[in-house]
Amino acid sequence: MERKEERKLSAVLNEPLDKSLLEMATTPDGMKTENVSKPVTGQLCYRDLCRELTNMDLRLRRPCVTLKKRATPSYQLFAHVAGGNGHKLVKVERTILVSYESYILTQLMEHGPYVYDWRPFELVSLLSQAADIFEGENTMLTLRTPIAIIGDIRGQYQDLHRWLCITGFPPRQKILFLGGVIDSEEPGSLDCLAFIAAMKVRFPHDVFYIRGMGETLPIQFQPRFRRRNDSAVQSAATRLCDNLPLFARISNQILAVYSGLSHELSNYECIEAVKRPFTLADMPTLAKDLLFSEPTTRIDMYRRATENRPATFGFGAVKRVCRDMGLKLIVRARNPLDNGICWLGKKQRLISLWSAPAKASKKAAVISIHPDFVIHVYTLEKQKQKK
Predict the structure, then answer these.
(1) Nearest-angstrom CA–CA distance, 40 and 142
(2) d(CA 144, CA 294)
(3) In CATH, what number is assigned to the domain containing residue 93?
(4) Could you please report the per-residue DSSP string of 65-126?
(5) Which of 40, 189, 211, 343 is deepest in the core (most CB within 10 A)?
(6) Nearest-10 crossing angle of helices 104-111, 189-202
(7) What's the pTM?
(8) Is 387 contained in some domain?
(9) What positions does the domain Serine/threonine specific protein phosphatases occupy (predicted)?
(10) Is 233 part of a structural domain of the chain?
(11) Are 212 and 179 in contact (CB under 8 A)?
């Protein structure tokens, strides 16, 4: 029964949003667009690397501010194009010039968006440290602006580096990952998870990660070490993912979740009642709906999961949750989108993000929310193949 459930969920892993939803999607009025001409490679030059490392050493942070209650969202779009070595993970020999022996994160940053020569015990230790930190966090994260929100990465390690070059690295920029970092088909999944773990260990109060579908389905990284070492790495990664938070509340006005809403979601206390860790086999209904339910125009409120389809929710459910929980915006991920982002509903209260430009899409997006409720939308177009 458990394997049947896994196959069913895997089959809809890359399923796009319903066409009827896309037809009703709108663009915010007055959104300004700026095209950034310089391609984003994801590789920091020496000057930028030194600047980021200095910020890290000094722990320079933007002050956290609560959103103004009467503020309404306004948007600015910055369009980027991917450059460099494409989107497939490649191995590049690099000499590390900056010596920071105590922090693996700095070496990963300097090495850039290429295969890193991990030692198995080093990787297991890093994932275990991060798992301990995630285990100590609440099931519902309580965050404040400014913060950048990144949707599905799906093992695209190069694009993870590109996004961080665009948004800025922690601690200067707080970052929330909505899940979907892991994709068993992509060799860069382990590298993505390790990089996020390294950021979390170094800056536990500036990097946040909630659970998605990729973190819930059985984790199967592509072989990298000897079988025993691969098994140890996979076990450490599974423990990390089983302890991830499920939900984030930003400045009491924005809800961030991997996929959807639930008929059991009526207040914040019901989320805190979900006990971790849990697996796909023993997942409570509320958690399953948050991870797998999808928006639809066919119903107004909720429809429970069936044998062939996950649970769904309508815009009446969005309105109810926003009213009952005092929200102005709900941000979700999961579904591939042609433009990387879409605004759904009459009042554009539901935002769907897709952050993997080379996975089932040609363009991706992340957002950065500022205290005055100005939301910067960063898009990244897939790199064109060289002739």
Answers:
(1) 32
(2) 26
(3) 3.60.21.10
(4) BPPPTT---EEEEEEEEB-SS-SS---------S--TT-HHHHHHHH-SS-----HHHHHHH
(5) 211
(6) 130
(7) 0.94
(8) no
(9) 118-384
(10) yes
(11) yes
